[in-house]
Design goal:
- By secondary structure, the chain is mostly helical.
- It is about 70% helix and about 0% strand.
- The protein has helices at about 1-25, 35-55, 60-80, 90-105, 110-125, 140-150, 150-155, 175-180, 185-195, 210-220, 225-235, 250, 255-265, 265-275, 280, 290-305, 310-320, 325-335, 335-355, 360-380, 385-415, 425-450, 455-480, 485-490, 495-500, 500-535, 540-565, 565-595, 620-645; strands spanning about 55, 60.
- A two-stranded antiparallel ribbon has the order 1-2.
- Helix 13 packs antiparallel against helix 14.
- The chain is elongated and about 95 Å long.
- The model is unreliable at about 1-30, about 445-450 and about 480-500 (pLDDT under 50).
Length: about 650
């Protein structure tokens, strides 16, 4: 009864406040497209469609030709209302030249080139975001296409959907190689986002940004053949094309015609393969600090365009998907620099949240870029000597594994002292499954997808809060047994029934969460370290093995020491340890969700002590204080009940 009562109180308090904190997190509403995006979209449409409406000075399709005039004039008018810029006068001149070219029925290639020149000049001048924040997950692309596009464009994309016959003009045929070779993924994304005036193609701003990128990538490759994909995969794995497509922007802004003209025929199958597997571009080839610098640039560009949430998301990714992965390594080279970068990145995110002037944010971004360059130079020049590499690998595993070892040692000792060795397979199964899944995570992170830092921190945060709740349950259960009288009653009531299947599964789950939470983050850190030291992997392996041995010895010492403790002292000490670890997990869980951008942050002026789960955040401290109050109340209640029994 006591266990049930305190469990309900603890779980309700912990998950209730967690839900409250979650609900006041930052908004995730989609920012509407700005006028610059509309101009870029109109110019792309003109560049692709004008050559089909005029040939040799003769209008082939009057309605299409009238549309080109209208769109070019609309682009020019919208451009005239944009904010002042040093290049604006030249941009307006190019827009006037484009309108004159269309009205004068100039050759298609000439007008198309002029429209593209103006389009890219505007993109550069106004820092237009032209690439997704991360590689889109295309596994559900076909399902999304079926739900959103097949009615018009047909199940295979031939423009022959159920309602296609009623539309004028007809929906695009995505298998038209001539037309599709003129479209970039970004231009398709713009069309999906904004639609096309006076056609059946409406904008899909109700879809998330990620979903629109998924559709753009999917339809861009409907005309490709299996032979193209196989050839492209073969060339890419042979390191051909990596300098042509160093990032997502280079992939989504080029057309097949651009690629063929610039890099030759072999580049086209590589281009085709990467548009089906965009994760391959950034999976393991972009150094973490370069990734951080790129995200900061993109964050600043988004902020300048008024896309506040996108700017914040990119700032979070700059830390989690880049800098965090080399923190331990940089610590061995220049601890002061590592701490300075952390402080500057936190300050930059605060500026975004407070909506400070663009000039102020830009200065902060410049400071971060300079610091990242300094860090990259130090890591490159230093080349991580063997001792530093070994120490980095050793500290990563030792730091991440210590909490898991403490929990596992307590659980093992509990079961053996209670003569319930039959429950040990549950616990062994939990931590073995966690290690196996950690190994799979390494393979997935290395060869299949790029796990985003926000996703990683979200997963870790949720797991930490769940683990904290389960630790409270186990800790309260053990605290009941800390008194000799209660222990004798417990034995008399038959231990076999008390350690029910539900309790054993709870122990198995907490062993799984304790190990996998650490393994999930550890594999990402080791992957980053592995990239930095290639091909000299021996120090990394040496540090990893040494840390594993140290953890095994530490676990054995903790286990043997706890076995020899008197029963009352053992259960009292272990229950207190698990309760304190639950407080640590709560702090780390909230901090992880805040780093992922899921929860808002209200800073407080206290030092950060990650080992204790203490962070300068009001949300985390409040929830930890509540958990401490629940623990103290439950332990006091248990002690009072024990005295009544006596």
């Amino acid at each position: 009864m006591i266990r049930s009562l305190v469990l309900k109180i603890g779980m309700a308090s912990l998950l209730g406040l967690a839900s409250l904190l979650w609900s006041i997190g930052p908004a995730t509403a989609q920012a509407p497209p700005g006028p610059v995006h509309i101009i870029v979209h109109l110019l792309d449409y003109v560049a692709v469609d004008y050559p089909e409406s005029v040939r040799d000075g003769v209008v082939l399709d009057q309605s299409e030709y009238d549309e080109q005039i209208e769109f070019s004039q609309q682009a020019r008018t919208t451009l005239s209302h944009l904010a002042a810029h040093p290049d604006k006068a030249n941009l307006l001149r190019l827009a006037d030249e484009l309108i004159s070219g269309i009205q004068g029925k100039r050759p298609g290639l000439e007008v198309s080139a002029l429209a593209q020149q103006l389009r890219w000049s505007i993109i550069r001048a106004y820092d237009v975001e032209v690439a997704p924040k991360r590689p889109p997950d295309l596994r559900l692309a076909a399902t999304l296409y079926e739900a959103q596009c097949s009615a018009c464009h047909g199940p295979e994309g031939h423009g022959d959907g159920l309602v296609a016959a009623s539309l004028d003009p007809s929906p695009s045929d995505f298998h038209d190689r001539h037309r599709m070779d003129q479209r970039s993924v970004y231009s398709l994304y713009s069309t999906i986002t904004l639609g096309v005036q006076r056609t059946g193609m409406s904008g899909f701003q109700g879809l998330s940004e990620d979903e629109r990128w998924v559709l753009a990538f999917y339809v861009s490759n409907l005309a490709s053949t299996e032979a193209d994909l196989l050839r492209g995969a073969e060339l890419w794995q042979s390191d051909i094309g990596r300098r042509w497509f160093p990032d997502l922007a280079s992939l989504v802004t080029q057309t097949a015609n651009d690629v063929r003209t610039t890099h030759g025929d072999d580049a086209v199958p590589v281009f085709t393969y990467l548009r089906q597997h965009p994760e391959a571009v950034v999976s393991s080839h972009e150094p973490p600090l370069m990734r951080s610098a790129r995200f900061i640039r993109e964050s600043l560009a988004a902020y300048r365009q008024g896309q506040l949430q996108a700017a914040q998301d990119l700032a979070v990714s700059a830390y989690l998907d880049g800098f965090e992965l080399v923190e331990t390594t940089l610590d061995t080279v220049d601890r002061r620099l590592r701490m300075t970068v952390e402080v500057e990145m936190l300050g930059y995110r605060a500026l975004l949240k407070e909506r400070e002037p663009v000039a102020t944010v830009a200065m902060a971004a410049e400071r971060i870029q300079a610091l990242l360059s300094e860090a990259q130079q130090k890591l490159t020049v230093t080349r991580l000597p063997t001792s530093a590499t070994f120490l980095s690998a050793f500290v990563i595993l030792l730091r991440e594994g210590l909490e898991a070892i403490l929990i596992l040692a307590a659980i093992f000792a509990l079961l053996i002292k209670g003569e319930r060795r039959d429950a040990l397979p549950y616990v062994h199964g939990g931590w073995i499954a966690a290690l196996a899944l950690g190994g799979i995570s390494w393979l997935v992170a290395s060869y299949a997808i790029a796990i985003s830092g926000a996703t990683r921190e979200m997963t870790e945060g949720v797991m930490a809060l769940v683990a904290a709740a389960i630790l409270l349950y186990v800790g309260f259960w053990m605290h009941e047994k800390a008194y000799a009288d209660r222990w004798r009653i417990f034995l008399h009531a038959q231990l076999q029934e008390a350690l029910s299947a539900r309790t054993m599964w709870a122990l198995a789950l907490v062993s799984f969460l304790a190990v996998y939470r650490e393994a999930f983050e550890t594999v990402l850190f080791y992957q980053a370290l592995w990239m930095q030291v290639a091909p000299a992997y021996a120090p990394v392996l040496g540090g990893l093995i040494s840390a594993a041995v140290a953890l095994a010895i530490l676990g054995w010492l903790l286990f043997r020491g706890s076995i020899r403790l008197p029963l009352g002292l053992f259960f009292g000490a272990t229950s207190l340890l698990l309760a304190l670890l639950s407080v640590v997990f709560v702090g780390k869980g909230i901090a992880a969700l805040q780093e992922a951008g899921t929860l808002s942050v209200n800073p407080v002026n206290i030092p950060s002590i990650p080992a204790l789960g203490l962070y300068p955040s009001l949300q985390g401290l409040v929830l930890q204080a509540l958990v401490v109050l629940v623990i103290a109340s439950a332990f006091a209640y248990t002690r009072h009940r024990a005295q009544d029994i006596r």
